[in-house]
Recover the amino acids of this structure.
């Protein structure tokens, strides 16, 4: 039987390299995808997810098994992403360039031509609008939506990841979903 | 009104709930406009989130792991360097700086925002460690890796 994540983490705390390798291989794709969904930049997602694995290696001994390993690890990862966002934002204010993050998004999401037949392209256009609206959410709101929908996490676990109360998670989610609803309705 | 069924909304939309639970969520949605709205957007997101967000650029996982292992090695070397026995002279100057900061911190509380007094500047120059005022001001964050690394760098410069 495959060892559980929690058991592997205990072994990492004892500096078991094979256990670390196994945990990385289990989580690398999810970690990279989640970091990318929050940061919207491949290179940053790569760096930050790798940093999360390094922190996992360094702090595995502090994992007490009170939550699932995935919740504990996502807490490290998501907070690194949010910190990265915060620093990046500060830097962008400093150099007065706030278009960098959007460049990729705009290139990726060419608006549909105005006079296209509605039927086929409207779904495509709605998805693009939805994607851009998710990009524009505040980072914590976006993280809450991604953890709920993409990672299938319960409110209680999202609260642990975002280091806030369940009530706050509910507010983040409700606001984010209300914003997304407006976007979709406008189409 | 009953508790909002936060965690049940997605299983409900996916049809994963047992009949009794399903019935309970459906009744709640009829009487709670907030949850009804959340459920509508979640329904859209469930099928479309991946498509709406796009896919991250592909990664060569072999290279990813090689980079990770290099970064981890670099971090281990750093930690080994930080844990080496601290030379007596450096320990003494660090203790001196800490004392200075403690006294200074006390004064800061009583008259926050005061410019640095001339005697403090002289002491700072004596130590040669106070050139980066921000580093010293943040010595309360001694556990912070960046600060420690900074001090190590300053110390080796100081010794050479
Ligand atoms: Zn409700």
């Amino acid at each position: 039987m495959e060892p559980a994540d929690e058991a592997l983490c205990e072994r990492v705390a004892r500096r078991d390299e094979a256990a670390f390798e196994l945990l990385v291989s289990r989580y690398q794709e999810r970690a990279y995808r989640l970091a990318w969904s929050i940061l919207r930049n491949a290179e940053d997602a790569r760096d930050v997810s790798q940093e999360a694995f390094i922190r996992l290696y360094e702090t595995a001994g502090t994992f007490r098994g009170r939550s699932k390993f995935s919740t504990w690890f996502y807490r490290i990862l998501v907070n690194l992403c949010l910190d990265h966002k915060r620093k990046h934002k500060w830097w962008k204010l400093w150099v007065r360039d706030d278009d960098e993050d959007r460049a990729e998004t705009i290139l990726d999401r060419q608006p549909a031509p105005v006079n296209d037949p509605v039927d086929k392209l409207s779904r495509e256009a709605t998805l693009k609008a939805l994607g851009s609206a998710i990009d524009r959410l505040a980072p914590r709101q976006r993280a809450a939506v991604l953890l709920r929908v993409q990672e299938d996490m319960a409110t209680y676990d999202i609260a642990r990841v975002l280091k806030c109360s369940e009530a706050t998670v509910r507010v983040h989610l409700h606001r984010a979903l209300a914003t997304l609803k407006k976007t979709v309705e406008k189409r | 009104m009953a508790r909002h069924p936060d965690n049940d909304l997605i299983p409900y939309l996916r049809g994963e709930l047992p009949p009794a639970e399903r019935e309970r969520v459906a009744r709640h949605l009829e009487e709670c406009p907030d949850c009804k709205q959340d459920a509508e957007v979640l329904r859209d997101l469930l099928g479309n989130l991946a498509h709406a967000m796009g896919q991250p650029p592909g990664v060569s996982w072999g290279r990813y792991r090689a980079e990770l292992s290099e970064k981890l090695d670099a971090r281990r070397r750093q930690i080994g360097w930080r844990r080496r026995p601290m030379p007596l002279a450096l320990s003494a100057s660090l203790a001196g700086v800490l004392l200075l900061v403690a006294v200074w911190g006390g004064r800061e509380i009583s008259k926050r925002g005061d410019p640095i007094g001339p005697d403090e500047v002289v002491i700072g120059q004596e130590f040669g460690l106070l050139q980066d005022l921000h580093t010293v001001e943040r010595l309360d964050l001694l556990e912070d890796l960046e600060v420690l690394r900074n001090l190590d760098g300053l110390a080796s410069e100081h010794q050479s």
